[in-house]
Amino acid sequence: MKISIKFSTFLVLLFSISISGFTQTTSPPRVSCPEAAQFYARDSINIVTFGASTVEGVNGAGFQTMLRNNFLNCYQNKVVDITNHGIGGQTTFQGLLRIDNAIKDRTGFIVISMGINDALAMVNGKGSVAETEANMRSLISISLKQNLVPILCTLQNVDDRNSAPLAQANVNIRALNVVYRRLAIEYKIYLADVNAAMRRDFTLYQDAFHPNARGYRLISYVIFDAINKAIFDKFLMFVVSQNYPNPAGTQTYLDVVLPETDKLTIQVYDMMGRLVKTVLNEYINTGKHTLEINTSTFVPGIYFFKLTSDSGQYNAAKKFIVAR
Predict the structure, then answer these.
(1) Domains of the chain
(2) DSSP strands (E only) in the chain
(3) What pTM value is reported for the model?
(4) Which residues make Cβ contacts (< 8 Å) with residue 265, sequence separation at least 6?
């Protein structure tokens, strides 16, 4: 059987395939979901975003919608509430005048991205790195008193390729970022290192100061990662999985998610209540741990393991089977 295709039809097909391939390769991939998303202990994710124009958004571009979609994609059946408290042109001192209203009755996280206008003002002899540091300390302290988890953003560079004043602004931005990184360590809060991610890639900018859609997408990823780190450290639920495989042959595994560092004891008993094996008697840190139970010497039958913590906060018991 002979198949014939008109040359014009072939071109249309080829063009369609090319366009389809181009769309697929240039579309941004879905965000990679962290393991913490499976074990988040709360029903909602509440985020205050606070700062100047980078937070407010410029010409229809901003990071909040992208950030919200990142969380909705990974945190199934959770309410995601993000408020935008960005006002373009403001300094950290001006931010201090409105921080209380921005965080009133809020819970969860606060993303603080502020200081570029301070750096620009310093070029004109107004303000100093020390004054911005003092303002940022106040912003952090007020947020902590409200029991919010601060996410402190480093400042992106400004496009100084054709401007001596903006080159000086970047000198100030570098100095402020040194301060911000130090404050994150001092206050034991979380750093969203926007500067390290954007570097000096000015294709991510729509003007000398503000990210374009691609730049904002990158910022949403950096903030998403920082908040996930905080969730991993502070907001995991206590989970003990059923062992797998079950029935077990010569070995089986057990997943334990621990919300905070504690000493855990895991012991295996037979159905008569006799201790067969101590699997763990040690301190482990926050997060998910996969433990192996060697059952090669166990007589086939029914067993159960019991988990207790030194603090008394975490306890669990589960039955399992050993079969050959």
Answers:
(1) 33-234 (3.40.50.1110), 239-322 (2.60.40.1930)
(2) 44-51, 79-86, 109-113, 149-153, 190-192, 239-240, 251-258, 262-270, 275-284, 287-294, 301-309, 315-322
(3) 0.82
(4) 278, 280, 281, 307, 308, 309, 310
Reported as a single tens digit per residue, the pLDDT across 203-238 is 999 999 999 999 999 999 999 999 999 999 999 999
Angstrom distance (rounded) from CA 263 to CA 238: 14
Alpha carbons 45 and 161: distance in angstroms, whole number: 40
List, for residues 120-157, the tens digit of each pLDDT value.
Answer: 999 999 999 999 999 999 999 999 999 999 999 999 99
> Is residue 224 a contact partner of residue 192, using CB atoms and an 8 Å limit?
no
Contact criterion met (CB below 8 Å) for 307 and 257: no
- Residues 153/113, Cβ–Cβ less than 8 Å: yes
Instruction: Say which residue the tokens 């994150």 belong to.
Output: 184
What's the confidence (pLDDT) of residue 1?
40
Both tokens of residue 214?
């691609």
pLDDT value, residue 26:
52
DSSP assignment of 191-227: EE-HHHHHTT-GGGBSSSSSB-HHHHHHHHHHHHHHH
- 319: pLDDT strictly greater than 90: yes
* Rounded CA separation 287/38 (Å): 11
Residue 28 has a pLDDT of 65
**Rg of the Cα atoms in the chain:** 27
Q: How far apart are CA 156 and CA 284, in angstroms?
A: 37
At CA 322, angle to CA 271 and CA 273, rounded to 5? 15
Q: Is 128 exposed, middle or buried (0-12, 13-18, 19+ CB in 10 A)?
A: middle
292: Cβ–Cβ under 8 A, 6 or more apart, which residues? 251, 252, 253, 254
